[in-house]
Design a protein that fits this description.
The complex is a heterodimer of chains A (about 120) and B (about 200).
Chain A (H helix, E strand, L loop, with lengths): L4 H18 L3 H48 L11 H8 L3 H26 L1
Chain B lengths: L25 H21 L2 H19 L7 H30 L23 H6 L3 H10 L3 H12 L4 H8 L3 H18 L6
Helix pairs in contact in B: 1-2, 1-3, 2-3, 3-7, 6-7, 6-8, 7-8
The chains are: A mainly alpha (about 120), B mainly alpha (about 200).
């Protein structure tokens, strides 16, 4: 196959460009290398920059899951739950002083209820 | 008269893309393999080494940010695309700056044209006659390539030097395959016209 003048011209220019690329001076090569290292360092930097955000995101997600579950699974708490007088009496059986106090408070309670009923009817 | 035979090189090697080995050494190895050629292409467009180095660095940073996680087999065409975009952006900024300078100097140059980038004048202000007057064969050829309008120069370098096919060149340049063929045809016509007296 015979090369046309155009093909030869293109080959010649390609060879000259190859030569130019192969004979760059040292300061230029150093600057190219520095630019390359700066670019490739971004990969590690980007990964490191994302890591704390990923950790924080994971923690936030876990906290939201725990909070959601606690809201969903929390049983209603009866804050008015109190021991009955019989239960108190059973607890105080072995303590005469506590039993006397209990009797006194029971009397006060009955007295108060009587007063309220008398006052209410008056 | 130009000597169009093979150029003697110490190592007898060529750095053409089609003969370059597959990327080895990861991203760093890939960039190390393309950085010199990228600089030469940028320098042909800008005629300024500092500007060319800035463009290569910008292209590397942008390439790493966008495409580092892509398949290494796609790195070369993607890098070409980023690099050519950077060069084209540089040409546009320069053109805007030149317009302002022209306006500030109150000149009446007519800069309207069908494709301002393609028709961008030689930043060094050289005419084809100046290029021919350089005399030395290698320098004359390089000067003729430098004097090509940007789009023609991109098409010529990507097709002739990087060994990309028409479709790959079109992707790298962000234009149609038909435009690539047109740019390349005009580039060859311009080179032949400029080198006519030397090319016997």
């Amino acid at each position: 196959m015979i090369d046309t003048p155009e093909t030869l011209l293109r080959q010649r220019i390609a060879e000259l460009l190859d030569d130019r690329a192969a004979t760059l001076d040292e300061p230029t090569l150093a600057r190219l290398g520095a630019a390359r290292r700066r670019a490739t360092a971004r990969i590690g930097w980007r990964a490191r920059a994302w890591r704390p955000l990923q950790t924080a995101g994971g923690l936030a997600f876990a906290a939201s899951v725990v909070l959601g579950l606690s809201v969903l699974l929390r049983a209603p708490v009866d804050v008015t739950l109190q021991p009955s007088p019989d239960e108190l009496e059973a607890l105080a059986e072995d303590d005469a002083e506590l039993f006397e106090k209990l009797e006194f408070f029971r009397w006060l309670d009955e007295k108060g209820q009587d007063g309220e009923s008398n006052g209410g009817s008056a | 008269m130009l000597a169009l035979g093979p150029l003697a090189r110490p190592d007898g090697a060529t750095l053409a893309a089609r003969e370059r080995p597959a990327p080895a050494g990861g991203l760093d190895g890939f960039l190390a393999g393309v950085e010199r050629r990228a600089l030469v292409m940028a320098e042909l467009a800008t005629r300024n080494r500092d500007d060319a180095l800035d463009l290569v660095q910008d292209a590397m940073l942008s390439f790493v940010d966008r495409y580092a996680t892509h398949d290494p087999a796609e790195w070369a065409p993607l890098f070409h695309r980023v690099m050519q975009n950077r060069i084209r952006d540089w040409a546009r900024r320069r053109q805007v700056r030149n317009r302002w300078l022209v306006w500030l100097r109150d000149r009446d140059d007519d800069e309207d044209g069908p494709d301002p980038i393609q028709e961008a004048p030689d930043p060094a202000g050289r005419t084809p006659e100046d290029v021919l007057a350089l005399g030395v064969a290698g320098e004359t050829l390089m000067a003729a390539v430098e004097a090509l309008p940007l789009r023609q120069q991109q098409a010529f370098l990507l097709r002739t030097w990087e060994g990309l096919d028409v479709a790959q060149t079109a992707r790298a340049m962000g234009c149609s395959e038909g435009s690539v063929k047109t740019h390349l045809s005009r580039a060859m016509h311009a080179l032949r016209a400029r080198l006519e007296d030397h090319w016997q």
